[in-house]
Every structure is written in C-alpha cells, then in structure tokens.
C-alpha cells in the first residue's frame, strides 16, 4: 500500500491552488536562449496576473530543486494584494526548458538574462522597474539580474539565504556538518537514497519532522519524482553554477538590498550572511529567520519585510 501512495501530486495540487487563489495564472514564453547560438530558443514557464500591472511589480525567484509553486506557495496570497507578482520557473526547473542536448547549461548570468527578457515580454512591463527577491540559488540569479540590469530596471532587491561569497572551503564545511559517509555535496543536494533525502531535510530545516513522519517509502517517492526522473537534467544544471568561481565576481550594487538569513541555517551558516552584508556596502539590512528556507516563514513577516524594502507603508495590523 505504501508503495502506491504518492504525496507529490497532492502537494503540487495544493501549491497550484494557492497560486490560482492569488489571481495568478500559468503562462509560457518562448525566448532566445543566450548561450545557444543563432536561432536557439528556450521556454520560460511563469505565473502572473493577466493584463498590465496595476500594482508595483515584484519578481520572485526560486532556489535549486523545487519548482516556483512549491517555493512560494506560502507567500503569493498576501503578497498579491500589494504587488503585481511574476513568479517564473528558472530554466531547467518546472515547466521551463532549454536546449540541453546541444547547448551548455545555464549559468546564473544566463538565467538572469532570460528573466530580463521575460519581463520585457510581459504586457506593460517593458522597461518598467521591478522589485526582485530570490532565495538560495535564486538569490544568485537575482543578484546577477540586479547588477546587470541596473537600479533603473531592477530594485529594491531581497536576497534570502544566498551565499554570494561561496568557496570550496564552504563545501568542505557543509560536508563536515552533514557528518561522515558522504562522498560529495551533490550526493546530498541530489539525493538518490532516503538517508540522503532525510539529511537534506535536516540541514535545510530548523525543526525537521521526526523520523516517523519521514518513512523510507515516502522519501523514495519524493526522490523518484523530484530527482531520479530528472537526475540527468539536474546534474547538467549543477555544472552551470558559477558562484564560487572566477566567473562569479561579487561587486557592490546600487539598489537597496535586504538580506534574509536563517540563524540556524546549516547549508549556508549565518556568518556567511554577515560576510555578504560586510562585503556589499549597499546592503540596507540583514533580517534573521530560522532556517535555510525563509520562503516558508510566516507570510505576514514576509509581507512586512517586502513592503519596508519597497518603501511601502506598513499597517499597524501587519506590524
């Protein structure tokens, strides 16, 4: 019985329902693929309200692994009442595709360039200034987008649990925190066995569910549908990540920036958040949450943070 039970479609249904209830609708745009040569295209799946923006635009960029609906399901409801949300699946995730058989995997710069093209293709959005928020890998992309597009196009910026200064030493520290028996970071980030999936959840969560709530048959189902069926593509995407190399140089940006970081984050420890804050003098503030998954933080907290970052009035009820 356990082998035939799958929670993935159920969770996907409820996540999509949150997006639909927030007035967002699924769409797709075919755009040039920046790294694919002449004539190469990619498809970006995204959620947005129909029509031109009537509220300030806000771009939400998910992390490595989950599709956009899973990452932002707790936030789109309250945020949609104050912002015109654009919530894409990054290339290679969810419904977004690129020519993986003939072109190199997208780097953070390529992802950012594609998002800029997507924004320009939407009704009433060409050249319009857009606030942007990214979490984890999505924060790398958001930083690159803000730097390349400039303050006239993108800003303010929210970067959540994104170690822009990541190095090989950080990977070694990650494996040390994970404990003995792991051959590499990708063994945990792309789990193939329940033990690796359980370890990933433990490292990404402040208070992970007890083991009895994560039986092996359930974790195998998640692994099969989220990782095994997509492993070749995810491995290809990992090869495109440039943070921690000479191709990803962190320089100050002129936008107002809010950093959100988990004080119990075991993927990117809190001291890295303070390092990013010190390294980028235009950072306006660093706010703490519990874990590596700040997008699951109480939605009212996120609403207040976004409104303050975007210089919008915060009501007494929201404080």
TrEMBL record:
SUPFAM superfamilies to which the protein is assigned, alphabetical: alpha/beta-Hydrolases
InterPro entries: AB_hydrolase_1, AB_hydrolase_fold, Meta-cleavage_hydrolase
Residue intervals of the AB hydrolase-1 domain: 58-275
A Pfam family annotated for this UniProt entry: Abhydrolase_6
Domain of life: Eukaryota
PANTHER family: HYDROLASE, ALPHA_BETA FOLD FAMILY PROTEIN, EXPRESSED, SI:DKEY-122A22.2
Identification of the protein by name: AB hydrolase-1 domain-containing protein
């Amino acid at each position: 019985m356990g082998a035939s039970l799958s929670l993935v479609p159920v969770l996907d249904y409820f996540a999509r329902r949150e997006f639909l209830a927030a007035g967002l609708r699924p769409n797709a745009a075919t755009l040039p693929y920046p790294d694919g040569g002449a004539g190469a295209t990619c498809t970006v799946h995204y959620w947005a309200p129909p029509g031109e923006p009537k509220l300030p635009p806000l771009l939400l960029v998910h992390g490595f692994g989950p599709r956009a609906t899973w990452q932002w399901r707790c936030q789109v409801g309250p945020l949609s009442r104050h912002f015109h949300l654009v919530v894409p699946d990054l290339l290679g995730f969810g419904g977004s595709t690129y020519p993986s058989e003939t072109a190199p995997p997208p780097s953070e710069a390529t992802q950012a360039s594609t998002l800029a093209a997507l924004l320009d293709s939407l009704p009433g959005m060409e050249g319009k200034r857009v606030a942007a928020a990214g979490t984890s890998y999505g924060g790398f992309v958001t930083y690159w987008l803000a730097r390349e597009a400039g303050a006239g196009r993108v800003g303010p910026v929210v970067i959540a649990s994104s170690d822009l200064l990541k190095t090989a030493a950080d990977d070694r520290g990650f494996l040390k925190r994970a404990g003995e028996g792991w051959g590499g970071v990708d063994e945990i980030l792309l789990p193939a066995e329940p033990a690796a999936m359980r370890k990933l959840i433990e490292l990404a969560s402040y208070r992970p569910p007890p083991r009895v709530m994560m039986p092996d048959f359930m974790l195998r189902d998640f692994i099969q549908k989220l990782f095994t069926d997509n492993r070749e593509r995810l491995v290809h995407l990992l090869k495109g990540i440039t943070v921690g190399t000479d191709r990803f140089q962190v320089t100050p940006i002129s936008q107002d920036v809010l950093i959100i970081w988990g004080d119990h984050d075991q993927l990117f420890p809190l001291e890295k958040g303070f390092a990013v804050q010190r390294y980028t003098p235009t950072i306006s503030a660093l706010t703490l949450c519990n874990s590596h998954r700040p997008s699951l933080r109480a939605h009212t907290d996120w609403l207040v943070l976004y409104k303050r970052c975007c210089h919008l009035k915060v009501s007494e009820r929201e404080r």
